[in-house]
Specification:
single chain, alpha/beta, Spore Coat Polysaccharide Biosynthesis Protein SpsA, Chain A, 7-stranded mixed β-sheet, two-stranded antiparallel ribbon
Length: 248
């Protein structure tokens, strides 16, 4: 039998609260992410809440959406920063100094080598869309309604990008979850968004160990946050062991 503490928390500052979470199965990755979150939070006197639960009503990926909704409803902080448990903060840079504070939601758009094929040899579509591993959210009614709408998109419960696909749908970046001509984000929604630089969500290639791999790279030099998105767990552990000297 194992024991797994439910939460790590600090609540003293109402400017920004960092949210994250992982379960027992993911602990060998999540504990390293948690260490960097706590160092970053303490440096800037930000609050944090890291939910370590083994039971959740949906796929664990949806925890971010639920925690954001719950915290937006509580309304205790001006901003909430969600960080996936495979993100690792590498340097002290205050994210609030790098945004347009009139916007509501702040996310990085990554590149995709599209699943849609062209009819021309050696030519591929390159699309882009949000990656929700790093999400900064301003505490507004609009933000709350946006995430409630994301939560209610139950058709994505079994999708291979469950929470991310629902987010893409609500935003209108639908190229990789539907048809190319469905990609038509409404201006009234886009105007609420600010797209973060890639240094806030720098993603190594899934097959980062193979230098001959021709996968599209979303890695940015000198990152604030490294995100091991889509990488197999054993490769994540290899990456952590080899490169954790660059983490906080």
């Amino acid at each position: 039998m194992f024991f797994f503490s439910k939460k790590s928390k600090k609540n003293t500052n109402k400017k920004l609260k960092i949210l994250s979470g992982y379960n027992f199965r993911y602990r060998n990755v999540g504990k390293h992410s948690e260490n960097t979150i706590i160092k970053y939070a303490e440096h800037f006197n930000f609050d944090y809440e890291i939910d370590k639960t083994n039971k959740f009503e949906r796929h664990f990926y949806w925890l971010k959406i639920k925690m954001l909704i719950d915290n937006l409803q509580a309304g205790t902080h001006e901003y909430y920063l969600w960080l996936d448990a495979d993100t690792f903060i590498c340097r002290y840079e205050n994210i609030l100094n790098h945004i347009d504070k009139k916007k509501h939601i702040f996310v990085h758009n990554q590149f995709f080598k599209s699943k849609h094929q062209t009819k021309l040899p050696y030519i591929n579509y390159l699309t882009w869309g949000p990656n929700v591993g790093v999400l900064l959210v301003r505490n507004t009614k609009w933000s709350l309604e946006f995430f409630k709408n994301v939560w209610n998109k139950k058709k994505y419960l079994s999708h291979y990008w469950p929470d991310n696909a629902a987010f893409m749908d609500e935003l209108g970046f639908k190229a990789e979850i539907s048809k190319l001509n469905d990609n038509n984000p409404p201006k009234k929604i886009l105007n609420k968004f600010y797209f973060l630089s890639g240094i806030w969500n720098s993603m190594p290639k899934k097959n980062f160990k193979n230098p001959e791999n021709d996968e599209v790279s979303n890695y940015y030099f000198d990152p604030v946050i490294i995100h091991l998105a889509g990488i197999r767990r054993r490769d994540r552990l290899f990456f952590i062991k080899k490169y954790k000297k660059f983490f906080l």
